[in-house]
Amino acid sequence: MQYPKISIITVVRNGEKDLENAIKSVVSQSYGHIEYIILDGLSTDGTLDIIRKYEHEISLWKSEADRGIFDAMNKGLDLATGDWVFFLGCDDVLASPTIIEEVVAEITETDGIYYGNTYLKKSNQIYTGKVSKWNIALRNISHQAIFYPRSVYKQKKYNLDYKLTADHVYNVELYSRFAAHFFYMPKLISIYNDLGMSSVNIDHQHKKDIVGIVYDNLGSAVGSYYWFRVKLSNFKNSLKGGK
């Protein structure tokens, strides 16, 4: 595909402080074949005023109730018509005005899952590098840095049992089936606000289930390794707490 359509989806609720910067980073892209979708969860601040300000540059937007961020993201997957889909948080921005054009230049496989890096503002570090079955259990691919092809996103939705980290489960399950279709691009895709909800809160259902998910999808060796790393981390944290 010479000019694939890239669907960029932003979900937001009461994001008036940051949303305009996210929108500007999308509508200023040099690449012309972008479908931009914004899904608002019935904001009560000035979010809708910002969306209306840019609605001539937004392909589609809605404001309606949802059951959380991943329910809204699933709605976005249903609405998207692009060859690839990408999620940009309302308080995140694309790394440069040419980054989507640069990503498209890397795309060669119709069913490829392409991913790069994001910059964590609070932590002041680049995340995450190339993944393998050994490290994807421990560190997720940021959804602000991964592009899913139509063959994936139209068939697979986020599991709403996981309120904050359903994207980690999503990626582990995909990697278990399509590892050969994951293609790493050593590019900075976005600048990510790692003070967001999923960064500062715990998804207790994910914490309860993730060892089993890793065992089931990545094998017993990886599952045992992950279990050991979790136990070691908990032990170290308990020592710190005892000081």
From TrEMBL:
Coiled-coil stretches: none
Alphabetized Pfam families for the sequence: Glycos_transf_2
Keyword Zinc: no
Domain called Glycosyltransferase 2-like: residue spans: 7-148
CDD domains: GT_2_WfgS_like
One MF annotation (Gene Ontology) recorded for this entry: hexosyltransferase activity
Keywords: Transferase
Protein name in the entry: Glycosyl transferase family 2
Originating species: Dyadobacter jiangsuensis
Lineage summary: Bacteria, Pseudomonadati, Bacteroidota, Cytophagia, Cytophagales
